[in-house]
Amino acid sequence: MTTRYTQAEWVALISEAEKNKPSSFPKYKAPTLGTPDFAKCIDHTLLKPDATRDQIDELCEEAKRHDFRSVCVRLEWVERAVHKLRGSSVVVACVVGFHEGTHSVSDKSKEASLAVSAGASELDMVINYPLLKQQSYPQVYTDVATVRNVAPHPVILKVILETAQLAQFDIIAGSKIAEAANADFVKTSTGFGGQGATVENVRLMKSVIGPHMKVKASGGIKTVNDCVSMMEAGAERIGTSNGVWIMKEAQSLLEDTSHAAGGSDGNQNSMDYTQLSEDVLSKLGQNAIIQLTNYSPSHSDLTGKFISPDEDIDVDVGALPLVAVVSVL
User: Fold this and answer.
1) Which residues 6+ apart lie within 8 Å of 11 measured at CB?
2) pLDDT tens across 171-216, in order?
3) Cis geometry, peptide bond prior to residue 154 (ω within 30 degrees of 0)
């Protein structure tokens, strides 16, 4: 397996990416709460070493009920999960080299091959981050590229960096190496190695990869606000064991805001944020949603107001984030 670049070439490439990283970051649109697109961003995850058969079965049933993107499990559960999910649109993702990332290249390659043979459509591999911290870039590239080689497209490959263990330069290096190895996603964390995903790291990872690669945020994502924050930072996939709660919370917030917007006479044409309880506002922050009953893509020129406890700004509804509290003027 080639190392693609020499050590000096890797250092130069990564240093250039670090030099060119932006000083400010765009805010990306998150899918509308409670929609199929929102659910399809979630990898419903159970990676505890002591997970039971019943827990895996429940995980799969929950994933089917909410139509998540995938269930993410260890190798020993892939075949069962594939069987349980047959006939649904939910796929199976399997972790590789989990969770330390220090497994040999041959062991990771074998694990990836077995997972795909058992029916896994996606692989979440842990990069050898101790080697990454040592700046042994050719070895790290070989680690990732070997797994990609035994699991080519259409298998989706996500590369976990374990960002809590890395300096900013290491995160950039891991992202560029994963990209060079033709991975589909670069991913923040295992959830077992310190602090999980942060908005700052998701933004950084998104800013240094090309347009054909994506970011998955995972580790410590427990609420709707966590999800939306990561999506607005650039994550297109969310790994969490709290997917069911997140969907329930999203539905509850939608119901609360819709009720507040309707008023006693059911009029949906105006609202005042004071109608929303402080509890709802604290959960929604400045990134919550009330969908307009008369809004559609063909009426994207409607004007509205972005409402929060701190500001009241005239906007074009069509330009609003997909999660926003809105009032038709």
Assistant:
1) 135, 137
2) 999 999 999 999 999 999 999 988 999 999 999 999 999 999 999 9
3) yes
Q: Is the pTM of this model over 0.85?
A: no
Q: In this predicted model, what pLDDT tens digit does every residue of 23-69 receive, in sequence order?
A: 999 999 999 998 999 999 999 999 999 999 999 999 999 999 999 99
CA distance 138 to 3: 5
Q: Give the catalytic positions in this structure.
A: 124, 187, 216
